[in-house]
Design a protein that fits this description.
15 strands; about 35% helix; single chain; alpha/beta; 6-stranded mixed beta sheet; globular; 2 domains
């Protein structure tokens, strides 16, 4: 059961939108490319896990805190007899190990992903104990999903799944009992409830420098054509209901300006006047509640 499906994180989403609304520096463009590559790797792993059609309890991209330490889990499977933690890496190229250190082939050091995994496992154990879930076996793996990855000098005892081992690993995983009970379901819901939405660290920007208008929800292009109640993207062919597109644009606005009140005037400007005031008002009322305060009236997202 997919308790917490994999979706793009707010940092990747923010970088994508900023990249379409302003020019990013070379450094920030590289950061966007790394985020895209990391998400692509997690998505590849996720699709393989979901494709097994099991009844495991699956949670993805958990942002948690234990003993005042924040940590992230790429993918977590709650099985009948254990938890399985996965740190997914989409590394490409040649790497090597010397002692406890990991390096690119050119000699540049990188963070040891096994140490990262061990830290995560330790914090998960502490978190489980704090919430009275004791003595649950945990299996942890670093999973490399890119077929163009190679690691030299790797000891045989490392908890690593290499690209050439993935098919065999998924077959073995498919043989694990998928039956779970109420205890495990409570654990899954508890971990989901402990997930923290992290404010993304985005490049600096101001309202005035951001290009206004509705962008394609698929490729972030501004090359849209309005057709009655839909928007057609001339770049990728995506067709989207105008109401959904504007509500998505409001979400983008609140992501970038969380302290700013949502008003018709602001949304009209943010969407570059794609529709009139009355249409924007009707669309906002589908998901937002009007907080009446005369000329200072604004909208808040409905709790439902």
């Amino acid at each position: 059961m997919n308790i917490k499906p994999l979706v793009e994180g707010s940092e990747l989403k923010g970088y994508r939108i900023l990249n379409s609304r302003k020019s990013l520096s070379l450094e920030k463009t590289d950061k966007l490319n790394r985020l895209e590559k990391g998400f692509a790797g997690e998505l590849l792993f996720y699709e393989n896990i979901v494709g097994l059609s099991k009844e495991w309890l699956l949670l993805n991209d958990l942002q948690l805190e234990s003993n005042n330490n924040k940590f992230q889990i790429d993918s977590l499977l709650i099985c009948k007899k254990s938890l399985m933690l996965f740190e997914v890496k989409n590394y490409e190229g040649d790497y090597y190990i010397e002692g406890d250190k990991w390096y690119y082939m050119n000699g540049d050091a990188i963070q040891n992903p096994v140490n990262q995994l061990e830290r995560t496992e330790s914090l998960v154990r502490r978190l489980l104990q704090d919430h009275k879930y004791n003595n649950i076996p945990i299996q942890s793996y670093v999973v490399f999903v890119n077929s163009n990855f190679h690691l030299y000098n790797a000891p045989r005892n490392l908890p690593i799944i290499f690209p050439t081992q993935l098919n065999r690993f998924f077959k073995e995983l498919n043989n694990i009992s998928s039956k779970t009970n109420n205890y495990q379901m409570r654990l899954a819901k508890k971990l989901h409830s402990l997930h923290k939405n992290i404010t993304p660290e985005l490049p600096k920007y101001s309202y005035g420098e951001l290009r206004k208008g509705v962008i394609c929800g698929n490729c972030c292009s501004f090359n849209l054509e309005s057709k009655k109640n839909t928007l057609f993207c001339k770049d990728c062919g995506t067709i989207e209901d105008i109401s959904l597109a504007i509500l998505r644009s409001v979400d983008e606005y609140t992501l970038f300006f969380p302290e700013q009140k949502i008003t018709i005037s602001y949304i009209l400007d943010w969407c570059n006047g794609i529709r009139g005031r009355d249409t924007i008002r009707k669309i906002l009322l589908k998901k937002y509640t009007l907080k009446w305060n005369g000329k200072a009236s604004y909208y808040e997202k409905s709790s439902d």
